Amino acid sequence: MSLVLDAAAQDLLFREARTANAFTDEPVTDEQIEAIYDLVKYGPTATNQSPLRITLVRSPEARERLVRHMAEANRAKTATAPLVAILATDNEFHEELHKLVPHFPQVKDLLYAERPARERSAVLNGALQAAYFIIGIRAAGLAAGPMSGFDAAGVQKEFLDDDHTPLMVINIGRPGPNAWFPRAPRLDVDEVVTTI
């Protein structure tokens, strides 16, 4: 095998990891989330823009407000997960570029002066960061239940502002009994990779 990562880490991050649908009641701490972010913040994004913003939903009142916006099939698991995170893009991410790209001060105006360009870039790069975040959750020994089944406009109005666009909601915790659906098939490499 040509991978450097050992088999146990490969299993933890990919082969044995699944989308969790049930969790124990063991809390997920702020320290765990900080450790996850401190690891995954190094994942690449275009011009290091880092548009992902994470809202942790901890209070019972906020959880109840969020559950109302979830698709019916996602409500019970969102109501009972130890921690729920709303992942969104910051469409004004360019205001942070002076810190993130100090060697290229003109990047803000050169590439991201127009809001539509920022929104397109934020969705792509925010989705990359969301994927890194899920892998970070797995690296912490936790399970993630990412979901796109929610009323995005409702979540934006309830928890965010016009400058932030929700990408996904992730339930986070230790997997509980019957947490997994059966593993679905995947495409083989020859179905995905073409050499020209």
Question: Would you give an account of this structure?
Answer:
This protein has helices at residues 7-15, 30-40, 60-67, 72-80, 97-100, 107-111, 115-139, 152-159, 189-192; strands spanning 52-57, 83-90, 143-147, 164-173. With 196 residues, the chain is of the alpha+beta class. A four-stranded antiparallel β-sheet has the order 1-2-4-3. Helix 2 (30-40) crosses helix 7.
Rounded Rg: 18 Å
As a percent range, the share of strand residues is: 5-15%
Order of helices and strands: HHEHHEHHHEHEH
- Secondary-structure content class: alpha+beta
Q: Distance between the terminal alpha carbons, to the nearest Å?
A: 24 Å
Globular, elongated, flat, extended or rod-shaped: what is the shape?
globular
The mean pLDDT is 96
Biggest sheet layout: 4 strands, antiparallel
- What is the β-strand count? 4
Poorly predicted ranges:
none
Q: Strand order, main sheet: write it out.
A: 1-2-4-3
DSSP helix fraction:
40-55%
- Helix count from the secondary structure assignment: 9
